[in-house]
Amino acid sequence: APHVFVARRQACHLTPVGKDRSFGRPLVLACAESMAIAVGNVSGADSEDLAIACRQPDGAGQVSWIYWQQPGGYSDMKRTALRTLFACDVALADLRGAGCADVAICQNNDRKSFSVESLVYRGGGNGPGGEPARLTSHDAQRVLIARPAGGAAPSVVLINRVSRNMLGNIESAVYFGGPRGYSPERRRLLPAW
What we know:
By secondary structure, the chain is mainly beta. It has no helices and 15 strands. The chain has strands at about 5, 10-15, 25-30, 35-40, 50-60, 60-65, 80-85, 85-95, 100-105, 115-120, 130-140, 140-145, 155-160, 170-175, 185-190. The model has no long low-confidence stretch (mean pLDDT about 85).
């Protein structure tokens, strides 16, 4: 049955929708500050695993989650944390042709700058493998998977909004031109804000 994703502060709810458009009892997953969800075969075992982009506090950082499909459904006891920071969106696709979905998560800031890295975790039977691939992004709000025609490998598309500093503590610079072109020695620094 299709489900409606309901993001709440302390948990997310997956509410089933019946053929008569009635709502069933929701599955409640303990992932705080969830932002987005994607379904795919992350384990490579023909499963429908859930990847949930979250801003759930964890020590000095935040985490998002993969919930592994089990015979009885999904459980907070069978999930894997992914290190993220200000995650906004998640998309799943087999980007490497490995038979399992990789997890792409866009992040929009690091508390200092909007120019940060979004992440791609490799999927696999033992959970996400190793360090994620890091993709430069600028206040990325959405991540999509483009599937080009002609059988080419899928591509990660990040929808960026703004870039650079968010605190105003990096000065702007005006470079004055001249017969020898532009030079750092001939510039004037201005407050950014």
